[in-house]
Amino acid sequence: MKKKLLLGAFLFGSFLTVKAQSDCASAAAVTVGVTNVSEVTGTYPSGTDAQICSFADGDPDAGFAAWYSYTPASNGVITVDAGIESNAVTVDTRLRILSGTCASLSCEATADDISYPSDLRSRIVDLPVVAGTTYYIVFDNMWYDGDTVPSFDFELSYTEITCFAPTEFAFSTETPPTETTVNILITDPALSTPLSYDFEYGLTGYTQGSGAIETISVTDGEAALSNLTSGTTYDFYIRSVCGEGDESEWVGPVSFTTLFGPADLPYEYGFEGNGGWGSTGGWTITTNAAVGQDASYQGEGFAFSNTSPTAASDSWLYTRDINVVAGETVYFSFYATYLGGAGTSASLDLTFGTGTDDQEVISSFTINANVGQQTIAYVPYTTSWTPTESGTFTLAFHNNSPAIGTAALSMLLDNFVVTNELSTDNFLATQLSIYPNPSSDVINITNASNILLNGVEIIDLNGRVVKSAKFNGVSEAQVNISDLSAGMYLMNVSSDQGTTTKKIVKK
Length: 507
Hints:
By secondary structure, the protein is mainly β. The chain is built from 2 helices and 38 strands. It has helices spanning 49-52, 424-431, and strands spanning 3-5, 28-29, 33-37, 42-43, 64-70, 76-81, 95-101, 104-111, 123-129, 135-140, 152-161, 168-171, 182-187, 196-203, 214-218, 222-225, 233-243, 246-247, 251-257, 267-269, 278-280, 284-287, 300-305, 315-318, 322-324, 330-339, 345-355, 358-368, 379-385, 391-399, 410-419, 432-435, 442-447, 453-459, 465-474, 477-480, 487-495, 498-506. The strands form 8 sheets. Strands 2, 4, 5, 7, 8 and 10 form a 6-stranded mixed β-sheet that branches. Strands 20, 22, 23, 26, 29 and 31 form a 6-stranded antiparallel β-sheet that branches.
């Protein structure tokens, strides 16, 4: 990359004092360096949200603004930073950068707090800019009464760049992802025309330059990757090559996951990591503790969020495809809870089909409300199904709860288990939940039935018992694995109804 940092303002050893003008037409031109904002008394930007930028707080008009302008001589990136040492962290600035004409502005970027509530200053970093285009730097008085914004400084820096990296990627629709292949389309950067791209990829979390599967040069705007592993997440890095010795910075990591192949039974999923599930309607993956879940039940779960309380729910959660055999009974178990008001309940169907649009009901459940988010507990649910034909099926949870007419509420699911044999070992496997998994410290064991836990043994891949614990007929237990080395282990759980084995991973 060819860079040229222009620090002309600092050559004179101080900062500029430029009085901001009252509106876009009279915006005060600034150069690279530090500028003092002595007052915020000008006209607030007018236009649509798309033109003058929409902030997360949603306030469309703060009342007053201070206007500055900057016109770069060549393509590059600028940083506008009010988070500098001369400003206290309590100076609550709000910043936007606009372009275009004063009669027709366009939003380029916004910034509010660097880190709320510890740092209320604002900063926009590495915004691409085009040579000869005027950019308007606008601070407003959103967080102050009237025009009483205290005096503060901001620093403008500029870096000339002749080769920009691409930042937009998509899966090819002509060659969709499979279990082992992915075709990634690359959108050329707007401010330069690369001759090719350097594209490096590997298993997620790998360090760039080490452990990559291979490095390829892409000249047709598409990276065609093959020989991948089913249901696996990869990272990639990419840079533009605009000429000999003229490359962009590396961009990444950007992640993608190959398709999951059908799962054989027994199968279980606890929403930790990408499991190949999909959904439509209101939903989110959520940390259980974040929604007031009982502290004894940790990890992540799935939340059906009722974002329109006056309308009935119609949300779907689709499992990874599962292989079944005709006439062989399939047993299901899962945990659910409903964050509702007194007297309310949620409706949930478990369905099956050969695709997401072809679903038939296996069982229907009523999930009664848990009132008071500090005492919520998950409840176990079980059912069974005997398929009439062999094949690969998509299972689904359908939230078809009636309208509740009050504030938006959520139904939560976790620890889905499906098995085809209800032997003692498999029964225990469906009724005992091990979470979080992977874990770096504590493994929890919870109970979907009246099973009494007697103890656990943790065995490494060499067959050695590396940890054991005894329990006195308890229904729930915890095992601390923080002293174990990272890797995979087998956990033998003994109870009054037999012994089962679970795989666990220590992070």
